[in-house]
Amino acid sequence: MKVLYTAAHGGFAREHAPLGGGAAVCDMLTAEWAKTQPFQLELFTPESVSGHDIIGFDTGSYARFSRQFEAASTAAIQRQDPADTVILVNDIAEGPDFRALQSYKLATVWHVDVVAYIASIYCRELVAPETLVAIHRRIGALCPDILTLIFQKQSDCVRFSAAHIVPSPAMKEIILRCYPETNPAKIHVLPWGAPPALDPVDKQTARAQLGIPADALVLLTLSRLSPEKNQQLLLDALAAWERQPNCPPIYAIICGGAAYMHGKKHEAMLRAKAAQLKHSKVIFPGHVHGPQKQNYFSAADLYVFPSSHESYGLTLMEAFQYGLPAITLDHAGARAVMQPEFGAVATKETFLPKLQQLAAEDLTAKGRAARTFAQHHPFSAAAAKLAAILARL
In the CATH scheme, what is the homologous superfamily, with its name and number, of domain 2-193+379-392? Predict the structure, then answer.
């Protein structure tokens, strides 16, 4: 069997680009399948599309790139024999023309439900995702292409894909609410588990290398710098904590590079907030990888996952691998993996008190529980399950 894997954010592993979970999953799947070889794998990436500096694209440039990649990946798929080739699609808005590929067995990976994202971030959860879908069905012909990329492509994906791979039960539930005609058996809930990681190094050795005092409370967050990642929640909490008596010495490490449409503006805002802190120290290492990432994870006491919307938490699971407990906001990604034994789920209003309560507990014991959980849920197991789903197609 042959699998053609199309990935608009794939092929950037060597560039260590801040592209998020979709790119990370693509890189990890191809690396895992290269070892296990469950089928013949061919990867189709933006190397086949000219001008793919997607990290710096504005909204219009990204929409044009999405259409370019749609056309190129559709043509690449149509050159395959549908009798012995399964198509794995790593994207939706950037994916191929699902409607034009009805003779192929398509399996689509949902890294994010963009309609649900819009309902959560832009509509502030005042409008349900299924309501947005219903509105678009009535007025879709009047919408600009950027909305067609979101709504019509997602609708076509649901209709014409033979399998949908989603990382949490919550995402499956939302898809079925938005598209009730969908056969639930087509939607496979497959949590990604913990990505491969280097072993942690001695905490004090890591801190010495990074110039962090041994007695500091070290908080770590790792994601691209983008508004939905909500790193300002941590900085605002530190500003409030500083005004309270007996505030401990705190180092906050905000790893990640600015990416996509609003990343640079968001980074500037974060740096301005950090500069206003009087006692807490904030470090911006940029995008980290390999031994550099290993040092930051090893030096930390607690992982902070403040995103407003997450379908899954790859970096959260990676933090567990390093023995870090965590605090996170309540979203589908957190509900898929968080447990009281190794962390806390907060709202924006309860974030600071829960952070303070967690910091006062035995973080070492919670970290051991986190690492045990991660070791029982390796990414390799998810890759094997996905390979089995593709084989059944």
Answer: Glycogen Phosphorylase B; (3.40.50.2000)
- Please name the helix (run of DSSP H) or strand (run of DSSP E) that holds residue 344, with its range, or none: strand 343-346
Asked whether the beta carbons of 388 and 375 are under 8 A apart, the reply is no
Residue 18 has pLDDT above 60, yes or no: no
203-375 architecture in CATH?
Answer: 3-Layer(aba) Sandwich (3.40)
Residue 377 φ then ψ, to 5°: -135, 65
User: What is the per-residue pLDDT across 242-270, written as a single tens digit (0 to 9) for each?
Assistant: 999 989 999 999 999 887 667 889 999 99
At 214 the three-state DSSP class reads coil
Domain boundaries, the chain: 2-193+379-392, 203-375
| pLDDT tens digits, 362-380 | 999 999 999 999 999 999 9
Residues in the chain: 393
DSSP-derived 3-state class of residue 329: strand
- Going by the DSSP 8-state scheme, the letter that residue 102 receives in this structure is T
